[in-house]
Amino acid sequence: MSFIYGLLSSGLSGVATMLVVILIIFNLLQCFFGYKLLKLSVAIIGFIIGVSIGYALMAGTAAAQNRGWLPVLVGIIIGIILGILSFRIYLAGVFVLTACVSGSAIFGVLATRGVNEVICWIAAVAAGILIGILAVKFTRPLTIIVTAIFGAVNAVNYLNQISTVLSRHQITTYAAIGVLAILGIIVQFLTTKKGA
Is 66 exposed, middle or buried (CB count within 10 Å of its CB: 0-12, 13-18, 19+)? Predict the structure, then answer.
Protein backbone atom coordinates (compact mmCIF):
# COMPACT_ATOMS: atom_id res chain seq x y z
CA MET A 1 0.00 0.00 0.00
CA SER A 2 2.77 2.46 0.82
CA PHE A 3 4.18 1.73 -2.67
CA ILE A 4 0.96 3.08 -4.23
CA TYR A 5 0.96 6.16 -2.01
CA GLY A 6 4.64 6.69 -2.89
CA LEU A 7 3.83 6.46 -6.60
CA LEU A 8 1.12 9.06 -6.20
CA SER A 9 3.46 11.53 -4.56
CA SER A 10 6.26 10.97 -7.12
CA GLY A 11 6.63 12.42 -10.59
CA LEU A 12 4.90 9.43 -12.24
CA SER A 13 1.49 11.10 -12.15
CA GLY A 14 0.25 9.60 -15.46
CA VAL A 15 1.25 6.04 -14.55
CA ALA A 16 0.07 6.50 -10.98
CA THR A 17 -3.29 7.86 -12.12
CA MET A 18 -3.77 4.90 -14.45
CA LEU A 19 -2.89 2.50 -11.62
CA VAL A 20 -5.34 4.22 -9.29
CA VAL A 21 -8.13 4.10 -11.90
CA ILE A 22 -7.53 0.34 -12.30
CA LEU A 23 -7.67 -0.04 -8.51
CA ILE A 24 -10.92 1.95 -8.35
CA ILE A 25 -12.50 -0.31 -10.99
CA PHE A 26 -11.24 -3.46 -9.24
CA ASN A 27 -12.65 -2.28 -5.92
CA LEU A 28 -16.01 -1.31 -7.44
CA LEU A 29 -16.21 -4.79 -8.95
CA GLN A 30 -15.47 -6.20 -5.50
CA CYS A 31 -18.13 -3.96 -3.97
CA PHE A 32 -20.93 -5.07 -6.32
CA PHE A 33 -19.83 -8.54 -7.48
CA GLY A 34 -17.36 -9.69 -4.82
CA TYR A 35 -19.09 -12.98 -4.04
CA LYS A 36 -19.64 -13.87 -7.72
CA LEU A 37 -16.01 -13.05 -8.53
CA LEU A 38 -14.71 -14.84 -5.43
CA LYS A 39 -12.79 -17.68 -7.09
CA LEU A 40 -11.22 -15.36 -9.69
CA SER A 41 -10.33 -12.79 -7.02
CA VAL A 42 -8.88 -15.51 -4.80
CA ALA A 43 -6.66 -16.72 -7.67
CA ILE A 44 -5.53 -13.17 -8.56
CA ILE A 45 -4.66 -12.28 -4.97
CA GLY A 46 -2.90 -15.64 -4.53
CA PHE A 47 -0.86 -14.87 -7.67
CA ILE A 48 0.04 -11.36 -6.45
CA ILE A 49 1.11 -12.66 -3.05
CA GLY A 50 3.15 -15.42 -4.68
CA VAL A 51 4.90 -12.98 -7.03
CA SER A 52 5.71 -10.72 -4.08
CA ILE A 53 7.06 -13.59 -1.98
CA GLY A 54 9.10 -15.08 -4.84
CA TYR A 55 10.57 -11.73 -5.83
CA ALA A 56 11.39 -10.82 -2.22
CA LEU A 57 13.08 -14.19 -1.64
CA MET A 58 15.26 -13.89 -4.73
CA ALA A 59 15.98 -10.15 -4.93
CA GLY A 60 18.86 -10.15 -2.44
CA THR A 61 20.55 -13.37 -3.53
CA ALA A 62 23.89 -13.58 -5.29
CA ALA A 63 22.23 -15.28 -8.29
CA ALA A 64 19.97 -12.25 -8.74
CA GLN A 65 22.91 -9.82 -8.76
CA ASN A 66 24.03 -11.02 -12.20
CA ARG A 67 20.60 -11.94 -13.51
CA GLY A 68 18.06 -9.19 -12.84
CA TRP A 69 15.31 -11.23 -14.51
CA LEU A 70 15.68 -14.15 -12.06
CA PRO A 71 13.66 -12.65 -9.16
CA VAL A 72 10.89 -11.75 -11.61
CA LEU A 73 10.83 -15.27 -13.08
CA VAL A 74 10.84 -16.95 -9.65
CA GLY A 75 8.13 -14.54 -8.50
CA ILE A 76 5.93 -15.37 -11.48
CA ILE A 77 6.40 -19.13 -10.99
CA ILE A 78 5.55 -18.94 -7.28
CA GLY A 79 2.66 -16.58 -8.13
CA ILE A 80 1.18 -19.07 -10.59
CA ILE A 81 1.52 -21.92 -8.09
CA LEU A 82 -0.07 -19.92 -5.26
CA GLY A 83 -2.81 -18.61 -7.57
CA ILE A 84 -3.75 -22.15 -8.64
CA LEU A 85 -3.62 -23.40 -5.04
CA SER A 86 -5.80 -20.51 -3.87
CA PHE A 87 -8.34 -21.31 -6.58
CA ARG A 88 -8.32 -25.05 -5.80
CA ILE A 89 -8.29 -24.75 -2.03
CA TYR A 90 -11.39 -22.59 -1.95
CA LEU A 91 -11.73 -21.84 1.77
CA ALA A 92 -8.05 -21.00 2.08
CA GLY A 93 -8.65 -18.65 -0.82
CA VAL A 94 -11.64 -17.13 0.95
CA PHE A 95 -9.42 -16.48 3.95
CA VAL A 96 -6.67 -14.93 1.80
CA LEU A 97 -9.09 -12.75 -0.19
CA THR A 98 -11.08 -11.37 2.73
CA ALA A 99 -7.94 -10.91 4.85
CA CYS A 100 -6.18 -9.01 2.05
CA VAL A 101 -9.17 -6.89 1.03
CA SER A 102 -10.07 -5.92 4.59
CA GLY A 103 -6.43 -5.51 5.66
CA SER A 104 -5.67 -3.22 2.71
CA ALA A 105 -8.75 -1.11 3.46
CA ILE A 106 -7.77 -0.76 7.13
CA PHE A 107 -4.22 0.15 6.10
CA GLY A 108 -5.50 2.68 3.56
CA VAL A 109 -7.87 4.38 5.99
CA LEU A 110 -5.23 4.62 8.72
CA ALA A 111 -2.42 5.70 6.35
CA THR A 112 -4.51 8.52 4.88
CA ARG A 113 -5.18 9.72 8.42
CA GLY A 114 -1.44 10.02 9.11
CA VAL A 115 -1.16 7.02 11.44
CA ASN A 116 2.35 5.58 11.88
CA GLU A 117 3.08 2.97 9.18
CA VAL A 118 4.03 0.26 11.70
CA ILE A 119 0.71 0.71 13.51
CA CYS A 120 -1.08 0.64 10.14
CA TRP A 121 0.54 -2.70 9.30
CA ILE A 122 -0.21 -4.21 12.73
CA ALA A 123 -3.86 -3.12 12.58
CA ALA A 124 -4.21 -4.29 8.95
CA VAL A 125 -2.74 -7.73 9.64
CA ALA A 126 -4.73 -8.24 12.86
CA ALA A 127 -8.02 -7.13 11.28
CA GLY A 128 -7.29 -9.14 8.13
CA ILE A 129 -6.67 -12.35 10.07
CA LEU A 130 -9.78 -11.90 12.23
CA ILE A 131 -12.04 -11.09 9.28
CA GLY A 132 -10.49 -13.91 7.23
CA ILE A 133 -11.29 -16.46 9.95
CA LEU A 134 -14.87 -15.20 10.24
CA ALA A 135 -15.28 -15.30 6.45
CA VAL A 136 -14.31 -18.98 6.36
CA LYS A 137 -16.91 -19.75 9.03
CA PHE A 138 -19.71 -17.70 7.38
CA THR A 139 -18.55 -17.67 3.75
CA ARG A 140 -21.44 -16.17 1.74
CA PRO A 141 -22.78 -13.46 4.08
CA LEU A 142 -19.39 -12.36 5.33
CA THR A 143 -17.78 -12.40 1.90
CA ILE A 144 -20.63 -10.24 0.59
CA ILE A 145 -20.40 -7.81 3.50
CA VAL A 146 -16.58 -7.65 3.49
CA THR A 147 -16.21 -7.22 -0.27
CA ALA A 148 -18.98 -4.60 -0.40
CA ILE A 149 -17.74 -2.52 2.54
CA PHE A 150 -14.04 -2.73 1.88
CA GLY A 151 -14.51 -2.45 -1.88
CA ALA A 152 -16.40 0.80 -1.20
CA VAL A 153 -13.76 2.05 1.27
CA ASN A 154 -10.89 1.31 -1.12
CA ALA A 155 -12.68 2.72 -4.18
CA VAL A 156 -13.48 6.00 -2.42
CA ASN A 157 -10.00 6.26 -0.88
CA TYR A 158 -8.38 5.75 -4.28
CA LEU A 159 -10.79 8.20 -5.89
CA ASN A 160 -9.73 10.76 -3.28
CA GLN A 161 -6.11 10.27 -4.42
CA ILE A 162 -6.87 11.57 -7.93
CA SER A 163 -9.84 13.87 -7.31
CA THR A 164 -10.86 16.38 -4.66
CA VAL A 165 -14.60 16.00 -5.35
CA LEU A 166 -15.27 13.85 -2.27
CA SER A 167 -12.25 14.72 -0.16
CA ARG A 168 -13.12 18.40 0.32
CA HIS A 169 -15.38 17.46 3.22
CA GLN A 170 -14.87 14.35 5.30
CA ILE A 171 -18.63 13.80 5.57
CA THR A 172 -18.93 13.38 1.77
CA THR A 173 -16.21 10.73 1.83
CA TYR A 174 -18.02 8.81 4.59
CA ALA A 175 -21.38 9.26 2.86
CA ALA A 176 -20.00 7.94 -0.44
CA ILE A 177 -18.50 4.93 1.34
CA GLY A 178 -21.77 4.25 3.16
CA VAL A 179 -23.95 4.53 0.04
CA LEU A 180 -21.61 2.36 -2.05
CA ALA A 181 -21.31 -0.27 0.69
CA ILE A 182 -25.07 -0.50 1.26
CA LEU A 183 -25.78 -0.70 -2.48
CA GLY A 184 -23.04 -3.32 -2.88
CA ILE A 185 -24.46 -5.46 -0.08
CA ILE A 186 -28.00 -5.22 -1.48
CA VAL A 187 -26.92 -6.02 -5.04
CA GLN A 188 -24.82 -9.00 -3.95
CA PHE A 189 -27.51 -10.52 -1.71
CA LEU A 190 -30.12 -10.09 -4.47
CA THR A 191 -27.96 -11.56 -7.22
CA THR A 192 -26.51 -14.59 -5.42
CA LYS A 193 -28.17 -17.75 -4.16
CA LYS A 194 -27.89 -18.82 -0.56
CA GLY A 195 -26.29 -22.21 -1.28
CA ALA A 196 -24.03 -20.99 -4.09
Answer: exposed
Confidence of residue 96 (pLDDT cuts 50, 70, 90): confident
Give me the long-range contacts of 126-134 (CB less than 8 A, separation at least 24). 127/102, 127/103, 128/98, 128/99, 128/100, 128/102, 128/103, 129/99, 131/98, 131/99, 131/102, 131/103, 132/94, 132/95, 132/96, 132/98, 132/99, 132/102, 133/95
Q: Pick 125 or 195 by higher pLDDT.
A: 125
Cα separation, 119 vs 130, whole angstroms? 16
pTM: 0.63
Where along the chain do its domains lie? 23-191
Instruction: Work out the average pLDDT over 28-42.
Output: 89
Nearest Cα to 157, choosing from 41, 57, 28, 39? 28
